[in-house]
Amino acid sequence: MTSTSRIAETDIPLSEQDRHPLMSESDINTILLNGAQISLTKLKRAGSFNARLYYYAEIGVYLEVTLSRGAGISDATREELEAIHKEATHIHMDANKLLNILEE
Fold first, then answer.
1. Could you tell me which residues belong to the region Disordered (predicted)?
2. pTM here?
3. CA 96 to CA 91: how far, in whole Å?
4. pLDDT, position 71
5. Are 52 and 43 in contact (CB under 8 A)?
6. Mean pLDDT of the chain
């Protein structure tokens, strides 16, 4: 019974088949947190002002996405991203201070 509808689906080219991947709420939370953690790690290793600024901005984007209501983003994710952003701010600012001291 289901095999006939499955066969019918495979006869249709992929471009014409309905593609509606669904993400659960926990998936979007995991993606946001993992992305921010990766950016924070890269920020810590960045060797130039421009690289640090880029990764800091990435973290800011992840945090801003959490402000979207109705997207399934949990309060725990939002709080953790705020903590990551705060840490990134301190890292970025401390590196800038050090850079300014070395330039003087």
1. 1-20
2. 0.69
3. 9
4. 75
5. yes
6. 79
For 31, residues 6+ apart whose C-beta sits below 8 A from its C-beta are none
Distances (CA, A) of 22 to 19, 27, 28: 9, 10, 11
Residue 37 phi, psi (nearest 5): -65, -40
Q: What are 11-39's pLDDT values in tens digits?
A: 655 554 554 455 555 688 888 999 999 99
Whether pLDDT at 80 is above 90: yes
Would you say how long the chain is, in residues? Answer: 104
Question: Would you kindly state where each structural domain of the chain is located, as residue ranges?
Answer: 24-103
Is the pLDDT reported for residue 92 higher than 80? yes
Q: Please write down the HEC assignment for all residues of the chain.
A: CHHHHHHHHHHCCHHHCCCCCCCCHHHHHHHHHHHHHHHHHHHHHCCCHHHHHHHHHHHHHHHHHCCCCCCCCCHHHHHHHHHHHHHHHHHHHHHHHHHHHHHC
